[in-house]
Amino acid sequence: MTLPGLGTLTVRADTRRLRRMLAKGRAKIVSATVGHRGGRWTVSLTCEAADLHDAVRHQLDASGTGWVGVDRGPAAFVVAGQADGTEVARVDDWPRPSRAGMARQRRLARAVTRKQRGSRNRAAARLGRHHARVAAIRRRFLHRVSNELVKTHDRLAIETLTITGMLTDRRLAAAVADAAWGELGRQLSYKQQWRGGDLTPVDRWYPSTKTRAPCRTVAPAMPLKQRTFVCGACGYQADRDLNAAVNLAIWAEQHHAQIRDLHAGGPVTNARRGEGSGPRTRAGETSPDDAGTAPTPPRARRGRPRGALSHNSTEL
User: Fold this and answer.
1) Residues contacting 102, CB < 8 A, separation 6+
2) Is residue 67 within 8 Å of residue 87, measured between CB atoms?
3) Which of 27, 113, 175, 182 gives 20 to 30 Å between its CA and that of 53?
4) Alpha-carbon gap, residue 136 to 80, rounded angstroms
5) Which H or E run includes 118?
6) Do 7 and 45 share a structural domain?
7) How far apart are CA 315 and CA 296, in angstroms?
């Protein structure tokens, strides 16, 4: 890749498809944005290409099987089920990158604090690279999960979690932050829009875990350690997460015409009570309803200016 002022650079990502499209005149590079993050340089290309238009790349599958509920949890990362009780997806094994790298993070953080003033740049850079690696592992895993869901189901229902409240629970905060459920919700939202599908946010007060899917009986509160749902009225038993996913699908079938898509528009408030730009979210946020539903007053707005863009990057 040749950039003005920098010359010819070697990129790590595979650019063969882009080079073929450029050679045949099927694509045109409009701009390139160079950035530096986590000790690595990246370049993001903006291209004009008819082959990459959403209507061409992501055609809606007409053979849909109804709504699919997506339940997120600390045990099983994602469980997806249909309204008839069929489990269509389950992700039990997820990387937990923050927990896996916590020992190294603490060691690098101690090295930074022990350096004399003015001599800790190298240690700080190593700590920054570690944080960037943890974020990259999490981001790639979330893309794999979200891609699989949107490619196989055109109608998804996802619960609107109060993640800011979960982060105040000292027993769950680390696991919730490591899971980045808010980022998963953001990816499902824009990818469903790409494919012409639907994503329905389910009311946060809907008792999906405690409701028996077939008869709609609501059971008492269930502790997290109880992984099997048991109906006290009829003795019905089901996996806790699958039962919740089925209930989300049933709710979506009944209410999807009355609500709007997750992140469909308007300001988004993140877990730190600051306003983001457009639909962009941070880890720990699921929907505009989390951490306050109303837009921030103009005088209280902070952060990135309106209209700022975020790019997908390719490593140099």
Assistant:
1) none
2) no
3) 182
4) 25
5) none
6) yes
7) 35
If we measure between CA atoms, which residue out of 239, 226, 233, 260 comes closest to residue 81? 239
64 pLDDT band (50/70/90 cuts)? low
Is 262 within the bounds of a domain?
Answer: yes
The pTM assigned to this predicted structure is 0.67
Longest dimension (CA), the chain: 73
Question: How many residues are recorded in the chain?
Answer: 316
Mean pLDDT of 25-46: 85
Residue-number span of the structural domain to which 21 is assigned: 1-52
**Cα 144 from Cα 141, distance rounded (Å):** 5
pLDDT score of 141:
92
d(CA 69, CA 153): 10
Question: Does 217 fall in a domain?
Answer: yes
Task: Give residue-wise pLDDT tens across range 148-192.
Answer: 999 889 899 998 887 888 888 888 788 888 888 889 999 999 999
Closest CA to 310 of 165, 187, 202, 173: 187
Read off the pLDDT of residues 67-102 as tens digits, 9 standing for 90 and up: 999 999 888 899 999 988 888 989 988 888 888 888
The answer to whether 137 and 144 are in contact (CB under 8 A) is no
* Residue 29 near residue 5 (C-beta atoms within 8 A): no
| Structural domain contains residue 313 | no
Classify strands 87-91 and 28-37 as parallel, antiparallel or unpaired. unpaired
Kindly state whether residues 19 and 75 are assigned to the same domain: no
- What does 45-82 look like in DSSP terms, one character per residue? EEEE-GGGSHHHH-PPPS-----EEEEE-SSSSEEEEE
Q: Take residue 49 and report the two structure tokens written for it.
A: 């290409």
CA distances from 35 to 124, 310, 315 (A): 19, 11, 10
